[in-house]
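Researcher: Go.
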Amino acid sequence: MEQAIIRAACALGAGLCMGIGAIGPAIGEGNAVGKALEGMARQPESISQLRLNMLIGCGVAETTGIYSLVIAILLLFVVK
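Model: Structure:
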């Protein structure tokens, strides 16, 4: 009985981890892309610099989603 409760709590924790861990990067990346496109529309001569900074920022923001995935996998398959 105790084992089933632990497994259920791990599954619930993994789901919450991925749910919350995926929303933050998605909102942040969407905001970054929107602002970069606004900047590109206003100053077409700075497209390459804006694109580079946007891609680096999206890569950094995506790491939180990857960390959430790793934690969720650990909760599902490692915790007994």
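Model: The chain has a mean pLDDT of 90.
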